[in-house]
Amino acid sequence: MTPSTTSPAAAAMSSSRWNPFSDRHDQRSSSDPVDGNTIDLVELWRSVAKRKWSILGLVLAVGLLAVALVLSMTPVYRATAVVMFESGKSQVVSIQDVYAGASGNREYLATQLEIVRSREVALKTVQALKLWDHPEFDPRTAQPGPLAALTSAVTQALGMEEPAAEAAWTPERLTAAVVAPFQASVSVELLRNSQIAKVSFESSDPALAARAANQLAQVFIENDLNARYEMTRQATNWLQERVTDLKDKVLQSERALQAFRERSGIISTQGLAQSGSSSQLEGLTTRLIDARLRRTDAETAYSQIRSAARGADLSEIPAVLRAPGVAEAKRNVLEAERKFSETSQRYGFEHPRHVAAKAELEASKASLKSQLDTTVASIKREFEAAQSVEREIERTLGQARSSVQTLNRAEFELGVLQREVESNREMYNMFMTRAKETNSTSDLQSPIARVVDPALTPERPVKPRKGLVVLVAMLLALMVGVAATLLIDQLDKTIKTTDDVERKLQVPLLTTLPLLNKADARRAASARLFTDQPNSVFAEAVRTARSGVLLSALDEPHRTLVITSSLPGEGKSTFAINLALSHAQTQNTLLIDADMRRPSVAKSLDLTPTALGLSNFVAGNKPLADCVQRIEGTRLSVMPSGPLPPNPLELISSSRFRERLAELGQQFDMIIIDSPPVELVSDALMLCSVATGVIYVSKAMDTSTPMVLKGLERVRRADGHVLGLVLNHFDFQRASRYHGDYSGYGKYGYGKKGYGSAYGEAYSSKAA
């Protein structure tokens, strides 16, 4: 092919040209966005199916352990006695005030259930049955737990505790020791919407369970009867004492009432409010009101006279004018003035008629003045008399009020004494009645409940439910196994499948290299696997990667590829060698070992370890022919790393390295550079910046996704064009078992013999 120089513009154009893997990736990303919060049920099922035998083994082991456990358990029997609570008891007379009678409400029934479970009832039942003699409840045979025994032995050995002396078991101590286990075995249940309760007892002895349930119900009934009888007896004694005290109080209050009547001279208290003093008080009050009215009128008239100006005409005052004499004298004066006026006009001053009229006028005025003086004096006397009468009535009224108040106090005290007598008498009568009722009912007590259905000896145990215990244990084991599987897969951040490449890394998948067997995985064997086994799965995978590289830039004749990875040991050198061998079938290809930290290409291809190589070529002290070795039978030339420089990064980042690489581009159609890992050194980043494409190699089920993402991001920041990722060490058989996506590889024998031969063999045998 005609040599040509690869310019930066051409490299940029080649990086932007159509890549079928990139397009597929973009389409997948646009249609199937990656969402970390989305739950992939298929992936969950694959995670479970991947470890199905481990999960089933765990379930089986737990199931066997549960079977052994339930078979070692002691069977427990339950006997139940049915008890009905009596809501209404037959009573000869009512005595509800003495003790609370039974009622059918829920609070009452709940109270009775708690009484059945009470320690007192349990204590009496234990004593009646003598449960301490039964082996199940005998505290004398109980052994301390291993931890308690060990603790006691250690403390005694250290001298911190004296050996406990064997205690004497009295009936009281035995009963107290048995009560708690007995109560733990008792259960009481109230049937819905009824007054019936089920009293149950659990024991390893079925006969004991029946006897204990019946005895517990009987003790409850007898205990209630005894309690109510004792309560009635106490009430009777208390009532008798109270009746005696109340009788004395009644006598004392009656004597005090009679003594007060004698001191006050009261014969009868009827009509005391309407006595003479009360009537006199009402009359005096009425008279006082009238006297005050009269005094007010007289005071008003007298005030008008006193307020008149000196020399004023008093006849104009209404109170004076109303007097009959004043009015008559006033008219006489007016008549005399009229006559005097007529005579004055008709006669002279010396005329007898004029003189007579004048004398009559003066006499009328003198009479009017006399009447006015008399009337004024009368009004004054009337005012003074009204004041005197008012004061007298007020004095008399005060005396009457004092007398009535004295009588009211006596009447009030009398009422108090009468009410005390009546209250004491009523209290005495009530307590006397209650005492007689209590005496009548002390010998008649109806039971609070009765046993409807006594407990029978159970035939089958209720615990343990062996099948249910085993089933629940196996279900729990299954859940734990599934949860552990999902947790392990969630914590596993490695790339496990081909889908993870595009879904998690967002880069195209160039190819998937299979997991090699021990013989093929040797360095010398794996380096030439493409040529030694051309029909193998590995070779086909390398061809797929070669096709992806060629299709990534159809118009670019000269390309420089950098093969790198995140960490050492991911198979990048092996893939670089085999990819170079595949390109050498059609192109003039150069393989450069640029990993000057740990070079491996020369050793893998059995080349001379001390041969000249990249460091010599870049330094310019050796020609290209001395630094390159041809692989026989192929168009592949290999440039080893050469002598290792003290600082490989300075060599790779130098401008001379770029010039030498451009010269190599004139000589070869394809240059493949095996670079160091990205996460360890920066050599690979410098190489990526001068290459037309970068292929990233990752080891399946080993390299974590965050590390690969970090490495890809570093390559992109170094202006490297990532063509895709190669997933190495992929176990197709395991993927076929766990995922089912690669079942065709095993079905048609897609293994070491290759795709074509196996496909033909499979179908030829099927046709035969």
Give, in spatial order, the strands making up the sheet with the most strands.
5-12-11-6-10-7-9-8
In DSSP terms (H or I, runs of 4 or more residues), the helix count works out at: 29
List low-confidence stretches.
1-36, 89-104, 267-274, 743-768
Q: Major sheet: size, sense and barrel closure?
A: 8 strands, mixed
What does this structure look like?
This protein is of the alpha/beta class and 768 residues long. Helix content is 60%, strand content 9%. A hairpin with a 5-residue loop joins strand 2 and strand 3. Helix 9 packs antiparallel against helix 13 (352-441). The longest helix is centred in the middle third of the chain and has 90 residues, at 352-441. The chain is elongated, with a radius of gyration of 65 Å. It starts with 7 loop residues before the first helix and ends with a helix. Mean pLDDT is 75; it is low at 1-36, 89-104, 267-274 and 743-768.
SSE layout and pairings?
Layout: H1 8-16, H2 20-31, H3 41-50, H4 52-72, E1 77-85, H5 106-116, H6 119-129, H7 146-157, H8 171-184, E2 186-190, E3 196-203, H9 206-264, H10 276-307, H11 318-321, H12 324-346, H13 352-441, E4 449-453, H14 466-491, H15 498-505, E5 509-514, H16 523-527, H17 529-532, H18 537-552, E6 559-565, H19 572-583, E7 589-593, H20 601-604, H21 614-619, H22 624-627, E8 629-630, E9 636-639, H23 648-652, H24 655-667, E10 670-674, H25 683-690, E11 693-699, H26 705-717, E12 722-730, H27 732-738, H28 743-747, H29 755-767
Parallel strand pairs: 5-12, 6-10, 6-11, 7-9, 7-10, 11-12
Antiparallel strand pairs: 1-3, 1-4, 2-3, 8-9
